Amino acid sequence: MAGRPFVAAVVLALASFSGSALAQDASLRAPPPVPGLPHPRPPRTIAVSGEGKVSVAPDSASFNVGVESSAKTVGAATAEATARMKAVLDAVARAGVAAKDVRTVRYDVSIDRPWKDGKQQPIAGYRVSTAADVRVRELAKLGTILEAVTAAGSNQLNALRMEKLDPKPQQLEALALAYAAAREKAKAIAIAAGTELGEFVVVSEQGVSPRPMMMASMMAKSMAADAAPVPVAEGELEFGARVEVVFAVK
Fold first, then answer.
1. Does residue 241 contact residue 195 with C-beta atoms inside 8 Å?
2. When comparing pLDDT for 161 and 2, which is higher?
3. Which fold has domain 41-59+165-250?
């Protein structure tokens, strides 16, 4: 019996310690939310988009030039196409176009097999076509080069595009104009709402288009070797950009 008071004292001490620890742990926990109190408001922002466009004169051009030949045998068609295309490429080189600016992009061989009364007839011949992309870095020579390739034997000339050799300055300028337009719109919205526009929070580029929205055209007066150079209207290129911006509101 003498040991029971000691055991009881130990039990009481442990209970007291446990209760103190639980009370301390409860004091460290954040209090539960009180129903009815408003939640914190998110920061006020204005989200807008802006577009910018820059027009500039081209300083170069590119086009696709080729030949197409037909013959009874594939060997004859190939030989004719090869000879004519060599003459065309030689004319391009003589006009001052560097080898790095000429690239073969097509060489096709097809069978000419006509249909009659719903039935396919025997092979009548073969067709060979070949083409190259040409870049002209001196725009003043473009008309002369176009005339030279047709005079040399090209019967396929298309995909004429006016270009800018280094479009980066125009692309960056279009981006700057797009941001300025977006800020102007956001400022107008802030004034209308009776507040003041703050700094930007997020800027997102939606695209920069060096679309050569080509405004150039060309017309050949004659395919004869002694004709005047092809007249070329250079026109302008348009570079566009679009951004989306989120501004803070003070």
1. no
2. 161
3. Translation Initiation Factor IF3 (3.30.110)
